[in-house]
Specification:
The structure holds 2 protein chains of 2 kinds. Chain A is mainly α. Chain A has 2 domains: 4-40; 43-277, MetI-like fold. In chain A, 77% of the residues lie in helices and 1% in strands. In chain A, strands 1-2 form a two-stranded antiparallel sheet. In chain A, α7 (162-170) packs antiparallel against α8 (175-204). Chain B is α/β, with parallel strands linked by helices. Chain B has 10 helices and 10 strands. In chain B, the strands form 2 sheets. Chain B has a 6-stranded mixed β-sheet with strand order 6-7-8-3-9-10, sandwiched between helices. The radius of gyration of chain B is 18 Å and the shape is globular. The chains are: A mainly alpha, B alpha/beta. Chain A binds chain B through residues 93, 161, 163-164, 166-174, 177, 181-182, 185-186, 276-278, and chain B through 51, 53, 56, 58, 81-82, 84-85, 88-89, 91, 93, 95, 97-99, 107-108, 110-112, 143-144, 146-147, 157, 160-161, 164.
Amino acid sequence: MINPRFTQVIAVLLLALATLFTLAILVFIIGFILSKGLAHVDIDFILSNPEDMGRAGGIYPTIIGTLILSTLSILIAAPFGIGTAVFLTEYTRESRVTRIIRFGADCLAGIPSIIFGLFGFIFFVTTLGMSWSILSGSLTLAFMILPTIIRTSEEAIKSVPYAYRDVSFSLGATLWQTVRKVVLPNALPGILTGIMLSLGRSIGETAVVIFTAGSSLRTPQSLFDSIRTMSVHFYILAREGLSNEKAYATATVLIISILAINLISYWLMIRFISKRSG
Amino acid sequence: MADKIEIRNLNLFYDKFHALKSVNMVVRDKNIIALIGPSGCGKSTLLRSINRMNDLIDGVRINGEVLLDGRDIYNSGLDIYKLRKRVGMVFQRPNSFAKSIFENVAFGLRVARLANKKKISEIVETSLRTAGLWDDLKDKLGTSALELPLYHQQRLCIARLLAVEPEVILMDEPCSTLDPIATMKIEEMMIELKKKFNIIIVTHNMQQAARVSDQCGYMLLGDMVEFNKTSEIFTNPRDKRTQDYITGRFG
């Protein structure tokens, strides 16, 4: 028999090691990108247009492109996703149909993004004639992130204590009033987490964007213009060997903005929660 | 005095389980009724039949009549939302919303689409006063209700209910999470509320039933074994089973 105290020590060591290993890799990746790219990032890089296919100049249009594309995809996907989640949890009873819908959403979440890209290309770009555009891109991205938003919202809604609904009904509220005034406000932090996850995914996405929004380096004037996002720009710079410096600089801006988004949303959530309970 | 609630031959099934068996009960106006009995005897189910909260549960079937002021709440086309405003409920756990104290009390008014801000403030104040909370909380109406101690939260839940001006208040073991002093405060409040409201309370605490109620019903396995004046039930029970329960031989 092995001494339980001994196994306890081993377990703690192994778990700590696993954690340390994960952290180390994360720190290494971020550190690697920053060390290669940070030196080439300045205000000019962020605010000026690229020149010579991106070999020189800045990345202003790709920042705008990323911003518009990801925001729009969230704006499209969030209402549908949250709506579906509310419907599945509050308006239907658990049955074969809801299980099939949920299974479908899970499958959809597992589909590789390039399949979504291909679908978007065939459906929006060619069949509907929307060409490579912000609209085609954000609609396709919306499809891609929809399952995540549905599932995270659903979990958030389910975690709202049932007693809250009981009280609301017992005070004469309808189901819709209960959803709007009690369930959704309490589920909001969880729903926002899902949205932030999705935002990160659509910012980092390349396959879908190349297929459906193209890779134009011009600053877009309308929703029907093609754009290039930071991720796609980074991919093209690295893939075509145009400029390693600019590629790392782009990656640096990308990583910093994703970190910033996470920090800001975290901060907003803390503030939101403490405002309601403090 | 008029009959506020009359329950006639009420049967309730959860799928195949017969939870209420031909229950009869008459509640006269401005009274406190206590329902006692061992766990699972159907007293909470009976309580939740009076504001149709059982409707929310899958597989519930109900037959029989529950008359509120002479009208059957199940079959007369009575609006279920209006019914629940007339017959309010206090739950076992103090379940204040994660909102401010003010918004907790105002919830029922917002749901009823009352928009007059002055009127809402007035009603919130009156409700908190009746619940004995106004003096303690008037300066911190904007803080979260979740920060209040439990016994304040339970009174806040009662204030939240009073704001919609119910006629009947159903209480489902409202003191089970409270200490004896907080329980005493709630009981004092119930005696005060009795002047204006009808109260039906489910309780595990027989002393509580004896202290506060005018009439008392003993339930066992879905049957209303005995329903009588509280003084009668506790001093001179007619049924052997009631006697066993109140003397502590069972339950």
